[in-house]
Automatic annotation (TrEMBL):
The lineage of its organism: Bacteria, Pseudomonadati, Pseudomonadota, Gammaproteobacteria, SAR86 cluster. The keyword Membrane applies. This is DUF4386 family protein. It comes from SAR86 cluster bacterium. The keyword Transmembrane applies. Keywords: Membrane, Transmembrane, Transmembrane helix. The chain crosses the membrane at residues 21-40, 60-86, 98-126, 146-167, 174-192, 198-216.
Length: 222
């Protein structure tokens, strides 16, 4: 009985962590967009020199923002995916397992992208010389975007698979399932030539809403 009680308590705690993680992911998107678009105005920096100037002058803010929006965000995704796999495995074992695997893959490449950015900001915070960095900046930017940000296909597949598994197991609301489908479409569009920005826009907005709706679904289900 004590063992059973401990398992129940641990799953209840896991459930709360998963629900909080979903809300955290949605908030981290909003916070990251606010910092990059409004405080740093990074989208207006169209040259390597301008991007380096912003990154070097606001290195601490960018470091903290990257930590939250890439690294901690990714750990939250792994926690959500693991919890939902455990909840759905009896009803949707294949879809649940696939979504868990894709979620781990997505999180891994996001963490790698975040670590690259954080290595650069750490260099600036330690007072490293930035002369001549323009030559390597474009290559670093391509690698970071390729891993996490320039193409949201993997994130879209993860969200779509997980939403489908939850819908078939009657775990999620129609709102969560519908938003998950939109996220998947946005992720797919982001991988198409000349439509990447449109797809990313659809992906980000719909996934913010999806995370909040997911957090509600997790919290209300037993």
């Amino acid at each position: 009985m004590n063992v059973l009680r401990a398992i129940i308590i641990s799953m209840m705690f896991f459930k709360k962590l998963a629900a909080i993680s979903a809300v955290y992911c949605g908030l981290s998107y909003i916070a990251g967009m606010f910092v990059y678009l409004y405080i740093l105005q990074y989208n207006n920096a169209t040259t390597a020199a301008a991007q380096i100037d912003i990154t070097s002058s606001k290195a601490v803010l960018m470091h903290i923002t990257t930590l939250h929006t890439y690294v901690l965000f990714s750990f939250a995704i792994i926690l959500i995916a693991t919890y939902l796999y455990l909840k759905l495995k009896d009803q949707q074992q294949a879809l649940g397992l696939l979504s868990l695997i894709i979620g781990i893959i997505w999180s891994t490449i996001l963490i790698a992208s975040g670590f690259i950015s954080m290595t650069v900001t750490s260099m600036f915070m330690s007072g490293a010389e930035i002369t001549g960095l323009e030559n390597a900046w474009q290559a670093l930017d391509i690698i970071k975007n390729a891993l996490g940000g320039g193409n949201e296909l993997i994130g879209g597949v993860f969200t779509g698979l997980l939403s489908l598994a939850m819908y078939k197991a009657r775990f999620s609301s129609m709102l969560t399932s519908g938003l998950g489908a939109i996220v998947f479409v946005g992720g797919f569009i982001s991988s198409l030539p000349y439509l990447a920005e449109v797809g990313i826009g659809i992906f980000v907005i719909s996934q913010i809403l999806w995370f909040f709706s997911l957090g509600y679904d997790i919290n209300k289900n037993e």
